[in-house]
Design brief:
238 residues; alpha/beta; 15 strands; 7 helices
Length: 238
């Protein structure tokens, strides 16, 4: 199911855009969930991992362009679509890797075309995910969006480009679930997504985001085997 955010400080416009998006995706039989935000601050504070974000530019306080730059620091792989009544910011949109720039009022045919292209882009990435529970709610976590799991007792911290998400699970059960998906338990407290390994030594693995994860001595040889295997599978010559 696609998770879509619509951010516009004009409540009616925000609501109308969300309804249009839902209607178009229902028509092309793509299940989705939309969340509405009336400020950049609200969007940035949201815990949800969105696949597509529709963002107005001209907003009070924190404008859309500043919001986008801060959003990109947390999520550099999400689809960002600007919606604005002005052409003024078209070239700035390239700086934050915007997928599309739509002018208000948004033409329904144009919106449908952009949505279809955005959906195709989201489907091109790996869609494996796990379902976790927190506070009696279920949440879908895409494996491609996870750098590593950190275990603190029965609490699991999921580290990804959008920050940390915590929930309850036993590490043994989690390890069993992910043993065929490129994750390796390099230490009793860490389960690492090996595709994000940027380097390693006998003490630690360095991830692409700069985090350093300790490697237990007794797990080092097996870690090397697994990380080299993943590197080869992803085109590395090792």
């Amino acid at each position: 199911m696609l998770s879509i955010a619509v951010c516009d400080d004009e409540v009616i416009e925000c609501c109308n855009m969300a309804k249009k998006i839902e209607a178009i995706l229902e028509e092309i039989k793509i299940p989705c969930m939309t969340c509405q935000f009336q400020s950049g601050e609200e969007l940035l504070q949201a815990l949800e991992s969105f696949d597509i974000v529709f963002l107005d530019i001209i907003m009070q306080d924190l404008d859309g362009m500043k919001t986008a730059k801060m959003f990109r620091e947390k999520a550099n792989d999400k689809i960002l679509i600007f919606v604005s009544s002005s052409r003024e910011y078209v070239f700035e949109a390239y700086d934050v890797e915007a997928f599309q720039y739509l002018l208000k009022p948004v033409n329904d045919r144009k919106l449908k075309s952009v949505l279809q292209k955005a959906v195709l882009k989201t489907e091109s990435r790996s869609q494996e995910f796990i379902i976790v529970s927190r506070e009696r709610q279920k949440k879908k976590l895409f494996l491609d969006d996870i750098y590593y799991f950190e275990i603190r007792g029965r609490i699991v911290d999921v580290h990804g480009p959008e920050g940390v998400f915590a929930y309850y699970e036993q590490i043994g059960e989690l390890e069993n679930k992910l043993q065929d998906y490129g994750f390796f338990r390099c230490h009793k407290s860490y389960l690492v997504n090996l595709k994000y390994a940027d380097g390693y030594n006998r003490q630690e693995v360095i991830l692409e985001n700069g985090d350093k994860i300790v490697i237990a001595k007794r797990r080092y040889d097996r870690f090397v085997q697994e990380v080299l295997k993943v590197m080869r599978e992803n085109g590395g010559i090792v």
